[in-house]
Amino acid sequence: MSNIVITNINERIREVLAKYDICLAMCGMDRDHPVTGILRDNIMIGSLDFVTSVESGMKNAKIFIDGLGTFSIEDGPDMEVDLGNMEDKLKTAFKPESDPDGMKITVQYLNDSVKRLSIEKKGDWIDMYAAETVELKQGEHKLIHLGVAMKLPEGYEAHLVPRSSTFKKWGIIQANHVGIIDNSYSGPEDWWKMSVIAMRDTVINKDDKICQFRIVERQPRIHFVEGKMTDPSRGGFGSTGSK
Description:
- This protein is flat.
- It has helices at residues 2-18, 84-93, 166-170, and strands spanning 22-30, 33-40, 43-52, 59-65, 69-75, 106-109, 126-129, 134-136, 141-145, 148-151, 156-162, 172-174, 179-181, 193-198, 202-204, 209-217.
- Helices cover 13% and strands 38% of the residues.
- The strands form five sheets. A five-stranded antiparallel beta sheet has the order 1-2-3-4-5, covered by helices on one side.
């Protein structure tokens, strides 16, 4: 009976993960038993482990997925394998191939006058607008309110940068060069703002299109292993020259 249980739960897990381009692969041994890795785009994003009860024959799967957490799934004789909680989180974090609308992001706007976000037909970046009129003197720093708070999908972060025309139009640079917004920055007071420094006297008007963002998968779990580089050397920093 235990072999049937193992087959059923394995097949069910593989079936659900496959919807999100995630697969299982043997990745070594840990304490004398096989370790199954969870991979997406050939990158390890988690692990799968099983514990079997000798008395009841129940099979318990421990599934860890980076950014989503750990899921405990039980299977046994005449028991349906329920992956509901895990699949709900997978739907939020990863776009299923069968979902033509893609991910959905909840946006809270500062007020009714704030310009709404929209998806441009060209390019992957989403434009953002000043939610206030700001007058800056040369050298002055300001956090410009963008008028939105968002709940990003699990496992993702946003990268906020200036548009290519931002400096030319307003003479401002982003103080931290790129803004990293975590998925956990999602409370009702967690407003998005752009940190800028004015390189000349300038005025940014409400609804001016001053920056853009895109969402990016968070870095997977990594481990540093000491060793020597074996690839051919390129000659060190700056070795390609200036012309």
